[in-house]
Design a protein that fits this description.
The complex is a heterodimer of chains A (about 120) and B (about 130). Chain A has helices spanning about 15-25, 30-40, 50-60, 85-110; strands at about 25-30, 65, 80-85. With about 120 residues, chain A is mainly alpha-helical. Chain A has one domain: Winged helix-like DNA-binding domain superfamily/Winged helix DNA-binding domain (Arc Repressor Mutant, subunit A, Orthogonal Bundle). In chain A, helix 1 (about 15-25) packs across helix 2 and helix 1 crosses helix 4. The N and C termini of chain A lie far apart (about 55 Å). The mean pLDDT of chain B is about 80. Chain B has 2 domains: about 1-55; about 60-130. The two termini of chain B are about 40 Å apart. Chain B is rod-shaped, with a radius of gyration of 25 Å. In chain B, about 10% of the residues are buried. Chain B contains 6 helices and no strands. Chain B has about 130 residues and is an all-alpha fold. Classes of the chains: A mainly alpha (about 120), B mainly alpha (about 130). The interface between A and B is medium-sized, with 23 and 25 residues.
């Protein structure tokens, strides 16, 4: 049975970028910040406060969870996070929503009269 | 020195948030400050501090209630002043029944105050819900 994730949508830009950063692999906080900067080509930079505020929210909603340390000698302050199945579902639903927005926008832009040059 | 200041900023966050994320925030500061500078981290820290205390901790409800109360008092005061200007006409109109006049005034102020509070809270909540993505 398909779950309904519409109550989580639309995601805030920070939440969307965090879920996207975790879509490929589990990451620690700083890794997420770097991945978000990379994905947005430096246009969107998350600070630690914004990152953990959103992580707190996403974790409490069960969309993200903590992952075990990769190596025993890892810095104990460095914690890894990963998407849950619900998190992946919400991200998929949000991408579908954004695709429909883009589709709609393209349709409207195509029907706009062109300016005379 | 700046790290100590950032540590103080992190420690000012609500206890639950601090217990969960303070160590990681400081670790990110250690990693990010040398290359990206400390200023954006401090700015983000201050924004996070305000957001945690006023939005996430529920203190905004108290602020909204206070603002709503203040708004009601201001509206009520403005109406009282306005009525004061036309007092002579009103007194003449309701001269025969002062109790009725008081009752009418009380009901009118209550209704206007409630309406103002409802409108204010609806606008406030819609704006807030959009911002925090509820």
């Amino acid at each position: 049975m398909l779950e309904d994730f519409s109550s989580y949508l639309p995601l805030s830009p920070a939440s969307l970028h965090i879920l996207l950063a975790l879509a490929g692999e589990e990451r620690h906080g700083y890794g997420m910040m770097q991945e978000v900067a990379r994905q947005s080509e430096g246009q969107y930079k998350l600070g630690p406060g914004t990152l953990y505020d959103n992580l707190q929210k996403l974790t409490s909603h069960g969309l993200v969870e903590q992952a075990p340390h990769r190596r025993p000698d890892d810095d104990p302050r460095r914690r890894y996070y990963r998407l849950t199945a619900a998190g992946r579902g919400v991200l998929t639903a949000e991408i579908a929503r954004l695709e429909s927005v883009i589709h709609e926008a393209r349709m409207h832009l195509r029907t706009l009269p062109r300016r005379a040059s | 020195m700046t790290r100590t200041l950032y540590g103080c900023l992190v420690r000012l966050h609500p206890p639950a948030f601090r217990r969960e994320f303070a160590g990681e925030m400081l670790w990110i500061y250690d990693e990010a400050a040398p290359s990206g500078g400390a200023a954006p981290l401090f700015l983000d820290g201050f924004v996070s501090l305000a957001r945690q205390w006023f939005l996430r901790s529920g203190y905004w409800k108290i602020l909204a209630a206070l603002a709503g109360g203040l708004f009601q008092v201001m509206i009520g005061g403005a109406i009282m002043l306005r009525i004061g200007q036309h007092r002579a006409q009103l007194t003449h109109y309701m001269a025969g029944n002062t109790e009725l006049a008081t009752l009418v005034r009380l009901v009118a102020f209550t209704a206007i105050g409630l309406l103002a509070a409802v409108i204010f809270l609806v606008f406030w909540w819609r704006k807030l819900a959009r911002r925090i993505g509820v």
